[in-house]
Amino acid sequence: MVAEKNIQEFKAGDEIQGFFIVKKIERKLSSNNKNFLDLTIIDQTGEINGKLWDCQPGQEATSPAGSLIKLRGNVNEWKGKLQLKISLIRLANESDGKNIKDFVLSAPLKAEEMFDELYGFVQKIKNTDIKGIVDAIIMASKEKLMYYPAAKSLHHAIRSGLLYHILRMLRTGEKLSQVYTNVNTDLLFAGILLHDMEKLEELDSDELGIAEYSREGQLLGHISMGINRISKVGEELRADEEVILLLQHMVLSHHYEPEFGSPKKPMIPEGELLHYIDMIDARMYDMEDHLKNIKPGEFTQPIWSLENRRLYQSSL
Amino acid sequence: MVAEKNIQEFKAGDEIQGFFIVKKIERKLSSNNKNFLDLTIIDQTGEINGKLWDCQPGQEATSPAGSLIKLRGNVNEWKGKLQLKISLIRLANESDGKNIKDFVLSAPLKAEEMFDELYGFVQKIKNTDIKGIVDAIIMASKEKLMYYPAAKSLHHAIRSGLLYHILRMLRTGEKLSQVYTNVNTDLLFAGILLHDMEKLEELDSDELGIAEYSREGQLLGHISMGINRISKVGEELRADEEVILLLQHMVLSHHYEPEFGSPKKPMIPEGELLHYIDMIDARMYDMEDHLKNIKPGEFTQPIWSLENRRLYQSSL
Amino acid sequence: MVAEKNIQEFKAGDEIQGFFIVKKIERKLSSNNKNFLDLTIIDQTGEINGKLWDCQPGQEATSPAGSLIKLRGNVNEWKGKLQLKISLIRLANESDGKNIKDFVLSAPLKAEEMFDELYGFVQKIKNTDIKGIVDAIIMASKEKLMYYPAAKSLHHAIRSGLLYHILRMLRTGEKLSQVYTNVNTDLLFAGILLHDMEKLEELDSDELGIAEYSREGQLLGHISMGINRISKVGEELRADEEVILLLQHMVLSHHYEPEFGSPKKPMIPEGELLHYIDMIDARMYDMEDHLKNIKPGEFTQPIWSLENRRLYQSSL
Amino acid sequence: MVAEKNIQEFKAGDEIQGFFIVKKIERKLSSNNKNFLDLTIIDQTGEINGKLWDCQPGQEATSPAGSLIKLRGNVNEWKGKLQLKISLIRLANESDGKNIKDFVLSAPLKAEEMFDELYGFVQKIKNTDIKGIVDAIIMASKEKLMYYPAAKSLHHAIRSGLLYHILRMLRTGEKLSQVYTNVNTDLLFAGILLHDMEKLEELDSDELGIAEYSREGQLLGHISMGINRISKVGEELRADEEVILLLQHMVLSHHYEPEFGSPKKPMIPEGELLHYIDMIDARMYDMEDHLKNIKPGEFTQPIWSLENRRLYQSSL
Amino acid sequence: MVAEKNIQEFKAGDEIQGFFIVKKIERKLSSNNKNFLDLTIIDQTGEINGKLWDCQPGQEATSPAGSLIKLRGNVNEWKGKLQLKISLIRLANESDGKNIKDFVLSAPLKAEEMFDELYGFVQKIKNTDIKGIVDAIIMASKEKLMYYPAAKSLHHAIRSGLLYHILRMLRTGEKLSQVYTNVNTDLLFAGILLHDMEKLEELDSDELGIAEYSREGQLLGHISMGINRISKVGEELRADEEVILLLQHMVLSHHYEPEFGSPKKPMIPEGELLHYIDMIDARMYDMEDHLKNIKPGEFTQPIWSLENRRLYQSSL
Amino acid sequence: MVAEKNIQEFKAGDEIQGFFIVKKIERKLSSNNKNFLDLTIIDQTGEINGKLWDCQPGQEATSPAGSLIKLRGNVNEWKGKLQLKISLIRLANESDGKNIKDFVLSAPLKAEEMFDELYGFVQKIKNTDIKGIVDAIIMASKEKLMYYPAAKSLHHAIRSGLLYHILRMLRTGEKLSQVYTNVNTDLLFAGILLHDMEKLEELDSDELGIAEYSREGQLLGHISMGINRISKVGEELRADEEVILLLQHMVLSHHYEPEFGSPKKPMIPEGELLHYIDMIDARMYDMEDHLKNIKPGEFTQPIWSLENRRLYQSSL
Questions:
Q1: Which of C180, C299, C314 lies closest to F242 in CB terms?
Q2: Which residue among E242, E276, E311 sits closest to D280, beta carbon to beta carbon?
Q3: C197/C229 same-domain check
Q4: Residues C90 and C170 grouped into a single domain
């Protein structure tokens, strides 16, 4: 019997059908000289590889990466991994009544709610020059901020990922300022809000959160672009020179090490904190993500983004 | 008129007297072949260099480093720095009624209060094996913990410095666990409480917080010593093997980089957080300390412990 | 005619049969969508890859890695390498009268003889505390020591490899102490005997010498585990503190560089020698192993474990 | 007899007098507790250290660093170096009729002539947007450019040093474009003209070429400042976006390595050339400068700015 | 209709025939267990991959790498790349009247003309000892120099590549000596002429410019071989010792960094220039080569030899 | 009473006289403007600093570094170190009947005996080409080899140090070849004998073992010089090319890492052993030397040549 299931629920032996997004599609030639399609499909719960044997040249173009498809197939186990043998595939059409956004992996909170909470932090800034610059930049970028991923790499490519990252950093920043009470929260919140904002221009992303570097992103990078932006907005608002300078310095130094893109290290405590808050949020996200399917007492495979560490799922 | 002042209050032209601790003392030979004493003295507010011209051979031994002295002298300015020309110096005696501890730079909170707050975190640990190990180690080391500095380097050599460092880390750990709610606070608090505990054995410190490396400290270092200790206490308490292993892993990995002493990087999120909390607290302490006498709009000198960065005192 | 030959004797065109150990086995899908088995088999003389075309799903499970099989097939040359086209394969059974141990690559000396010679070095130790600790650890680990490989990597995965490595190091240590006569041979022999002993727990190995990292091995590593072990055994024997400390220091420092796992470098000459003796033995083994099939005047391929050097077989 | 000589002409035994610039001055205390002045003085031909014994406290303030003084003294040899024993010293006054600029080490060409030649290269730029941006920035900075040194370090602190550096780079760039004929000389000349222009703001220099980092220089550095400047001027001139982007990219990447301040490496051939032209000019200057007083067949001392190399004066 | 085209002109759908050089050829087994040939062929305009399905074992030996073949086939597009499906292939024979040299990618200038220009620089050397050594080495190596590639890597493997590289460096050296007029052009030209001359012995290359390392090349490398050569030739000519020494020093130091093969850094300005001239020429060649097929406004793929930079084709 | 003692026997309070070698001598100016001599003197047992107050300008030239002097003075303790207050000093003269060589720190064995043992190893070489090259080089350098130090640094500057170093390495090499029996002892002994032979030309040393780099040593270094030498001698003897090549390769690679001067790593086992034997001997010498005056249970100061390790004197 054909079942409608999320990818996470697939089991070997299932015959399944349903709607999925094409993440990658390629036509390949088998060694007996026949064409077949090699696809990776995703929904909100996971991803799986599938093959459609004996396809036609050009068929790969009818359901390109990023499109919503309807698909039927059989789930097999192959070297310990599930794989789909696809029997039918077609592009979703209007009469299916499906919205592609419902099939994308997104941040765990709604974009609107995240933005409201984030904007609350803008309003907590007391220095009017700082607040003015941050407000102008955030509002000008709001549309993209609502859906952009946090990074190009597939791994972080979740819808609204950047917004989620900034928001958690703001929460962490507020907590830390309760322990380190000398910290200037105006600078700290502003630094967090602005630090990655030019990723919205460094990457060209579609609504699904799949991103590529832009020309400006390649030649300058989001840090230099951020310096330019703060300079420009700050001058338009005739903001205090020290304010402009410190916000630029925080963005410039937040990657900390030259080889990661920061020509200067933080020279103010708020810049130092910004860096560590950024690291903590990225690492907690990565670790949680890699450990989510690991059983207690077991290790993950070596993880590239964590210097090839293997993580351990404690049984405590 | 002879004034009794804290070192911080000295001004060029003052004639002062009072009680101070000798931090460093050396007899030197002037180039006209005469002996003089070269001293550094401290009180709770700062430190200053002084000279006693025409001393006797052996006089340096009558008020050795670490002793409380009574001293009279004149304050001069020398290359933009104040310096004492000492006229009289003698060891403090019983009839002076002074307690040397009142002259040492100490953590800003009372040791007893800090320990009580710290011990509250021990009691928050729910896993009885973790709690048992932590409790045993903390209580066995309590006496030293009350006064030990956090590091050998003069800079951190404040009385009860280690206690203060651990306490602020616990506060930070608790705050972060409110944002990253998946974190196992038992492991995190235990990791924070234990991570530097063997510094109490790696360093031989006196009550004034001036420390030297012990033989075991040189040959093994506090991390390996910590591994041994957890292993031993854990076995005595017949604690769960996984608990012993994870506590050891957190201590082992908390310096993060091999070249800083950690042969393994954290493989559990709690270990990752432990590292960043340690870094944040050390850096916030260092930065605050170096910036405290800097005027808005000015930079510090290059700071060795911060990779020769100069820090900036913002005017905001 | 079907010949019974060692793998080393195979020639293109042979039809062979015999008993072999499965080192790796995988079912793969050909591009015309058929199943085939891809095997690597070994005996004491070498290893070879083979294919069984048109197998059944699940057939790979009937002769898993580590099992002894009987096999028939034809030897072909494929890109300058020999390969087997397998016609028959089955698990060895009792009536075959074969012992799997006779088919594993082993150290060139018998385990019992190696152990006896090694134990002779234990008896040469004059300091009773050192001797006691070493004796206790060696005897407790004797069973595993008899067959464990020296490393996880396939390359060193010969039966009794660790025993062979330690023995040659002891011989070298004795020779060097005849030139550098100030060296304390008690410490040196003990350091050699103990330095890798916890590899027996860091790795889970079967009798065939195929190893995987254990949980404790991943989270702590054999060096930290060795520190723990010496500490525990030393305390049980109420050994002199200096003895415990120096043995721990030698184990801790024997990898020399932090990035290879040693947080401290050797601070005693015996530790320095231990490191170089370890290096020499590993390198001589590696070089001999890679050069053994190379003709005079030719170079090996780049060798990963030797920083991608190519070795040269001299014609002298 | 008192002679008036250039520093380069001093010989041991001379009694000299003349006008010099104070480069460094400090009051020091001798070990017999007397004040003396320790000065370094310069003229266009070199520098020499001198002592004025038995000075008054405060006397160091009467002829501060950067002032022109009249001085009399005796030249002695001290450890193979000449040194002055100063007998008289006073500030130059109006009636002396001396101009301090005549006593400063300057680039070997006149600033006006160098600027004219440099400006000729601006006029060679054919692309009007590139030319417009370069022209605007050069003309706005012309005043400072006429006298600024090329670097803070004393070594390069020659008057008009930056102008000289840029000019020789332009000459080299033109020569290279005759060999590598595909190079876009508009971009190359513009890159050379702009690459260090914000050093004029990164450093606060006086007319004598003695420089200190500015606040903005410390917090952002001349590369980020240059990015801002090009962005601003380019937008004011409504220049082509590609032009602005490429000029920014060349400035951003001209230090080549992240640890020297360039977050991006050159992605266009003109940027690659800019880097190497910069290196060649700096190195040729440094080498010529260090070799100028070395005899054929001899080596210099190790030179810090050349990774402690010693240079060799060939006898060919 | 079958067309005769250069590889660069191939389009999907073409049926083509013509003469090409085999760069790589391998027989492979398809997963349905059939043999096919996998070839890469080149002509002066480019390279393309092709397959000949259902070949015979041994057929790969009939047209080995380096041979000139006649071939017929169909051009397909495969994953955005063109590929040949080969129908006929045979070795070119005498009656075809083709010269293999006409099908190899060569430097853009004729070898004879390049050599004449190069030799003109030898004649510009005024110092007779320098000239003698250079002349002897160049003339002894002339035959190989006429056709050798500049490097082993496929990328530079153009016929007469080394000659072209040296020539452009000489032109650049002459230009630079017009700006840096203190430079000794005898040394500079000699250094350029000799710096890579032992690559002719380090690599064994055939007339097509396809190279492999020689035994001596592997064990010593072209730099040490060059030192030997200059020493030998110099002594035969009884040249001045200083001349021999400086020429050796320039060759020894021209890679600049120890990890690139230079145990010493340049200690004379001419050696410093030699290094930068070498870098500039290599980089300009590489960049031009990678950019030649890139459209304005687009980026190349990451380029390994340029530290994985992507290059940008400016639209200016 | 004036005692004649070795430096090692000096005690505070002694009045001593005797003959010593001047290692360093400088005239300095005290801050009360008087000249004094600052000397370091050595004998076979150690070294000590001394001062002669109120000397004459030029007096430092009457007993230059390297001369034998007669001296009288008083031993004082100064900051925990002994120091001499010199009352009389004069150059030793013929009538004193002293030989300067008796006052230099030398290797613990006689040069002649060491050379004989060393030459025995030459005679053990069976391959006549290898033996011929080694013999020729050793005999040509014998005179210098008898007294040269092993390194420029003061520390190793003992008379006949290089000879001693080579000899111990030969002993070690012979021992190791008894464990690693596949090693070609002809190559190994030859490699040891030749590896540092050009240090005799890289350094200009006097008979006392005090060395400076020669011109050739600076520009080429002893490794490249060794390559040249073997090449030259080998060709003169018409030795087998493989022999010449392998001896050169061993010398070239014996420093192992590019940053220590070896552009190639060893590609033959004998080269690998040569490197480790060199390391072991250097380290054992260094460690023994630094530990010789340290009491059991104590640490040395950080030692620069051992990466700032402190060594521990075990009490076992």
A1: C314
A2: E276
A3: yes
A4: no
